[in-house]
Design goal:
- Chain A: It comes from Compostibacillus humi.
- The complex is a heterodimer of chains A (140) and B (493).
- Chain A contains 5 helices and 2 strands; from the N terminus they run H-H-H-H-E-E-H.
- Chain A has 140 residues and is mainly alpha-helical.
- Chain B has 493 residues and is mainly α.
- In chain B, 77% of the residues lie in helices and 2% in strands.
- Chain B is built from 21 helices and 2 strands.
- Chain B has a two-stranded antiparallel ribbon.
- The chains are: A mainly alpha (140), B mainly alpha (493).
- The interface between A and B is medium-sized, with 17 and 15 residues.
Chain lengths: 140, 493
């Protein structure tokens, strides 16, 4: 695709920022409201897909030089490892804890181990979705 | 609470993920996978002895108590199968070390086998119906990848069929679960059992049980086995052995669990239908086993016959029959992989799968020939080997239940098994030697050792049936008395 798509590229530059912000928002909102790692991860992956469409694949690969298969594996590893976290402390497998911590900027914040688990889910989703899209693109 | 119950599923998952990072290091891949299976076998042994002392155990994930949370339940039946799975997987790994091509090993072969084993173990251990579906999917997704490994033309053709059949049957599974949830309002297996017993098995529930039977029929190859022989015969030997040993067995396990724990109130409908399906499977499998001259197809049709045989025990439904089914299930999980490994080795050394093109192999490879002989006797149910005790008990159960036609079919099918394998033995191992000693392909140690290990296992299981008896008895008693299972899950801390 060699067409010089000025409008798409210009819009992408702005929209990607919005998508990434939304992804982070959805990821953090997921603890009490609709959202979470899976949905946040999907939105995050859509930002990458949009970049692949607007700019050619080589440029994006150069800018983000990571193997997305390993991202997926890392995400899955983090999620499973939090499951083992409970085992280490003599609690049931996959047990999660939370607590309220006074942070300097945010004030009183709820910190949970579920967030770590969800971060793993998000990474796995990003890795898998981008890998699928890329391998479909390479086939054609 | 006992976290160790989750390890047979969690350790292979974790190992499979970690191995993705060591894609190019074959040694790490091989020995980690092998070590994981050995550890799993040790855990299963420990659990088995613990269950005899403390009764059925469970682990509530994240501390969510049943019936609200998801849980794993370890009873003797599950753990015996987990133990057998781990042993078989370890042996298949040894075979894969010397037979898998290098590019297989670098494209996540060991990771996917680990995921497959995790799915199988999870299916055996789970105490939640929806979680059973999820574990089935974990196992099936791994098997989709493994069946297409290598990407040869007929593999792609068969894997297409395999994927479509399994996606459709998974969809049916989901529909059946939805119906059941809509009717009874719970997914916890013990809670389901209790509620169905309270409400009585209404005609609606019996119909839902038929949907489950269809699903497990497709997965286990009970009557609906049309997809099985060809798809199992295109995959590489080590994977075929794993598939033949494990995949259909999970379907059988699910069938036994569902029809002894939930739908046991109307046996004259459900169990009779299982009996009819098992009988037809025995007939169809027997015809298939003697009809072909391709040894891979003969071997896969033998898988089908065993499915029918094990479910004859479930259909009879007495304590002896269920004990027989469990013995035969364990026996079959050991002997079928052995049969696949030997058949695969025969194909590897001769370069053909056609019976007519092989002859006199016993002169070149005496060890392989005699191991094949042992397998044949074991599958036919000749006394010192492991098939005997299962066949006797299933037969006894069928007589007690008065199902003489099934009894006759089950034992006639044994003769067909013997005949189909005897034909291979006479044609391929006896007769004039056609491979001269110069052209002879050297037998690799990595091929003989796994076969020898499994042969030793079938002899040990046959001779040591007595030492396994208390565990099998306990497993069958839990199946006969669902209340034991319910009490352990819902009313014990």
């Amino acid at each position: 695709m060699r067409t010089n798509n000025v409008i798409l590229r210009t819009v992408t530059r702005i929209v990607v920022i919005i998508i990434l912000t939304l992804a982070v928002y959805l990821f953090l909102a997921g603890h009490h409201a609709p959202g979470g790692g899976f949905i946040g991860g999907l939105v995050l992956a859509s930002a990458f897909v949009l970049l692949f469409i607007a700019v050619d694949m080589e440029t994006v690969r150069k800018a983000v030089p990571i193997d997305f298969k390993l991202v997926a594996a890392l995400g899955a590893f983090i999620s499973v490892a939090t499951g083992f976290g409970g085992v280490m402390f003599g609690e049931p497998f996959l047990n999660q804890v939370f607590g309220y911590v006074e942070l300097p900027f945010f004030g009183e914040t709820e910190l949970t181990t579920v967030t770590i688990f969800e971060a793993g889910v998000a990474l796995a989703v990003v890795g898998v979705v981008v890998t699928i899209i890329l391998s479909i693109a390479e086939d054609v | 609470m006992n976290n160790i119950i989750v390890f047979p599923m969690a350790i292979p998952v974790l190992a499979g993920i970690i191995l993705i990072f060591f894609r190019n290091n074959r040694h790490v891949q091989r020995w980690t996978s092998f070590f994981v299976m050995v550890v799993n076998a040790c855990i299963a042994l420990y659990l088995l002895s613990l269950i005899q002392r403390e009764g059925i155990m469970r682990i509530d994930f994240g501390g969510w108590e049943p019936p609200f949370g998801i849980l794993f339940v370890a009873d003797s039946f599950s753990v015996i199968l987990v133990l057998t799975t781990s042993i078989v997987a370890a042996v298949c790994f040894i075979y894969a070390f010397s037979s898998a091509e290098k590019n297989y090993e670098q494209t996540y072969f060991y990771s996917f086998v680990n995921f497959l084993v995790a799915g199988v173990n999870g299916s055996f251990l789970t105490g939640d119906l929806f979680n059973l579906y999820v574990c089935f999917e974990v196992m099936l997704l791994a098997s989709y990848v493994l069946i297409a490994f290598g990407g040869k033309k007929n593999q792609l053709k068969e894997s297409m069929k395999y994927v479509i059949i399994n996606v459709v049957s998974s969809w049916f599974f989901l529909v059946a679960i939805a119906y059941l949830y809509g009717t009874v309002g719970t997914l916890n297996m013990a809670h389901l059992s209790e509620r169905i017993a309270e409400a009585g098995q209404t005609p609606l529930l019996t119909v839902i049980s038929m949907v489950f039977l269809t699903v497990f029929g497709l997965k286990a190859g009970l009557l609906l086995y049309f997809w099985l022989p060809r798809s199992y015969s295109v995959v590489p030997t080590a994977i075929a052995a794993l598939f033949g040993g494990l995949l259909t067995k999970v379907g059988i396990y699910a069938c036994v669990r569902v029809f002894t724990l939930f739908f046991y109130h109307e046996p004259e409908i459900t169990h009779a239908l299982i009996g009819i399906m098992a009988g037809l499977t025995l007939i169809g499998g027997s015809i298939g086993a003697v009809a072909y001259r391709d040894i891979r197809l003969i071997v896969t049709y033998n898988v089908v016959i065993a499915v029918g045989f094990i479910l004859v025990g479930l259909s009879a439904g007495t304590l002896e029959a269920l004990e027989g089914s469990i013995y035969y299930l364990v026996h079959d999980m050991i002997v079928k992989p052995l049969l696949f490994l030997i058949a695969g080795t025969m194909i590897a050394v001769t370069g053909t799968a056609k019976m007519n093109d092989m002859s006199g192999l016993i002169r070149n490879y005496p060890m392989l020939g005699w191991m094949f002989f042992v397998v044949k006797l074991s599958l036919a149910g000749i006394p010192p080997f492991s098939g005997f005790i299962g066949k006797v008990l299933v037969g006894q159960g069928a007589i007690d239940a008065g199902s003489y036609i099934l009894l006759a079919l089950a034992f006639i099918s044994s003769i067909f098994v013997l005949y189909s394998l005897l034909r291979i033995f006479l044609q391929c191992f006896w007769g004039e030697t056609i491979i001269s000693t110069e052209d002879e392909m050297p037998m690799k140690k990595g091929w003989v050792i796994p076969c020898a290990l499994l042969t030793a296992a079938t002899i040990a299981l046959g001779l040591g049936a007595e030492s396994l008896a208390p565990y099998v008895k306990d497993a069958a008693e839990t199946l006969i008395n669902p209340q034991n299972y319910i009490d352990a899950v819902l009313y014990k801390d």
